[in-house]
Design goal:
Elements (H helix, E strand, L loop, with lengths): L4 H24 L15 H7 L7 H14 L15 E9 L3 H9 L8 E8 L6 E8 L6 E4 L1 H5 L3 E2 L7 H15 L4 H8 L6 E5 L11 E8 L8 E9 L9 E7 L2 E3 L2 H9 L41 E4 L2 E4 L2 E8 L3 E9 L2 E16 L4 H4 L2 E3 H4 L19 E9 L5 E25 L1 E20 L2 E9 L5 E9 L3 E3 L8 E5 L2 E4 L1 E11 L5 E16 L2 E16 L6 E3 L7 E9 L5 E9 L21 E7 L35 E13 L15 E9 L13 E5 L15 H4 L18
Antiparallel strand pairs: 1-2, 1-17, 2-3, 3-4, 3-5, 6-7, 7-8, 8-9, 9-10, 11-12, 12-13, 13-14, 14-15, 15-16, 15-25, 17-18, 18-19, 19-20, 19-34, 20-21, 21-33, 22-24, 23-24, 25-32, 26-27, 26-29, 26-32, 28-31, 29-30, 30-33, 31-32
Length: 753
Amino acid sequence: MNPKLPYVLLVGAAVIIFILSCMLLSRGRRSPSCESQPRIVEKTGSTSQSLVFADLTPKEMLQVVRYLQGNLGVQLVDASRAKPSDNCIASVDLQVPAKAEVLQFLDGGGARPPREALAVLYFGNQPDPNVTEYVVGPLPTPAYHRDVTVQKYRGKVPYHRRPMLGSEYEQVGAFLEKVAFAAAPTFLKEVFEYDSTNVAFQTTAPHGLRSGDRKSWFVVFQNVSGFFVHPVGLEVLVDHSSLDISQWAVSRVFYNGQYYRDMVQLESAYVQGRISVQKVRKAPRDGDFSSMKPRAPSAALFPLQYEPQGPRYSIRNNHVLFQAWSFAFGMSVNTGLRLFDVRHKGERVAYEISVQEALSVYGSNCPGGMSTRYMDGSFGIGRYTSPLVRGVDCPYLATYIDTHSLSETLRPSKRKASLCIFEQNLGSPLRRHYSNLQSLYYGGLVNSALVVRSIATVGNHDYVWDFIFYQNGAIEGKVQATGYASSSFLHGDGLRYGNRVWEHTLGTIRTHSINYKVDLDVGGVKNSLVAHDMAFEMARAPWSLEQQIERPRLTKKVLDTEDQAAFRLQSKTPRYIYFAANSKNKWGHQRGYRIQITSFAGDHVPEASSMERAISWARYQLAVTRRKEEEPTSTSIYNQNDPWTPTVAFADFINNETITNEDLVAWITTGFLHIPHSEDIPNTVTVGNSVGFLLRPYNYYDLDPSIYSHDGVFFTSEQDFTACEINPIACLPKTASCLPNFPPFTFDGFQNI
């Protein structure tokens, strides 16, 4: 035996032990935290200019309230406690300046437009009760107010058109409990085990059947989690038109398919045994089948998204910068999320993109369901924007932004984390090609886009509102519907109006229609509308004249008037329709932005309906009109409660004016038909309930602008595709091997309710 062998073995063993120790130590060591790259520094001008579109600050809202309290000469009651006979401030929001003034400021070096607020006031304590809108300014120190009601609506707004305040709902609830229900104690106790706490009400709208009405059906549900799908069969029509609450009365009662004059008649019929009673099993407080509590324990964590080098977008005040994109954002108390001054590669492509309305029209054989046409803007899409849950409503590491509003109170309310912005890897290529013919190469670009999101919970419905910015210059507006299905009590021929989803629950059929305003400025303010499509033509094969070829060809048409540019909901629309600029690209084509709509809308309310004009925007999947300051919105918050004499009728916007080389607006309607089914229990999923539109460059550029993206990947068969300088994806083990810094989970959605 070699005397040196033991020493060699000892040294070898020591080396192995050292290597193993290093491996164990390194395995137990925490990966480095992800380090953010320096944030993009924006030019001061761009961020300060965007403030012309910024939502009112809480301080500004308070200044407006104080000014109104001191300068109107009337007592203003806090709307949260107001009676119908009081004067109160319903809302205060930003008054967006006129477009011409804003463009002169943004582009022409003009003066900044005065900052103003729009205040909506209810005047119930005067001989001629009405709703009045005031513009108040200049902010932050108001010195004037002017009544703009007649200018905007060509007349005063009658008091009966006012949206219901939360206080009025509470007053009706108290009336039902203390007056109406007091007239039927035996029926309520024996049929529902009523104890004044175990029922919930859902109102219908509009409130009546003719102009001037204020009569509302209140549908009774079990007061449990997810009460919307727990109807008990009782519905009460309350006449609350009088400004004197003591004059309110029950106009009609419905129970299990039968109508009664009032609760007294219902009680009498029950006591005499003349009612067919359908007892509903009492549900536990968690709702049982309607509970959203998971039925399975948590297991392996779902995938998470993070930014190895920090966010690649910047936000300052209301201004966002992302790669070639920049825009300003805001939140209207009535219509919700909106964008202004949207630019790509420094050039404005849209002045405004905003939600206008969310309409749902219901069917049922119960009175509440069959009379419901919800216009959610009147309730307040922005007002009911809800706090977002980190990691579910938006990616965990998204940027969360607080919003503020002043509605039905004298003080602004803060909605924490109610808007989120994030860049999302969509998990598929934006474009790619693998070449195995002639040359061998791969080229591709990850589809990473910026998302701006808010979620509004209006009653039973939750709407996920997205605006998405892609690297190829496209913008997507998208809405996903979720929340609880509204329901009726199943009786009689109920299955004509939906599906049975539980023992006594009819999921009622409804249509959802969403309207957007898209003010495109393509290559400037003046645009024309052009339609491209296809047609087959027959031709003789030039090389074989006895043979015929059917070939598609391009069709082109300039749409000269508003009437030509109004496309009915179910009509055939040109598949390529675009706003054309007065400039051309390198190849001689008019630069344009194409409108592409994704919709599965149900049928529109028949135009013979007495209320159809109030929702006449929903006649059209697309209507393009001349932009006018006096036509800022397609509807009005006052249309909900008086659709028979609409304050704004969109159909009047379309009057055959020429739209060639003019400042144009596209009004886009998208939607879907919802027939609730058993899988809508406990509530509706977003899958399959997503609609919207795309704005896509069409000959706007000389080539796809995303070719200049830093995210592109390209390598050939002759290159070392494992080298970082050739293929950045190969560097991920180095550049992305870090742990994201997850902030602690917080949620403020249950505070100050």
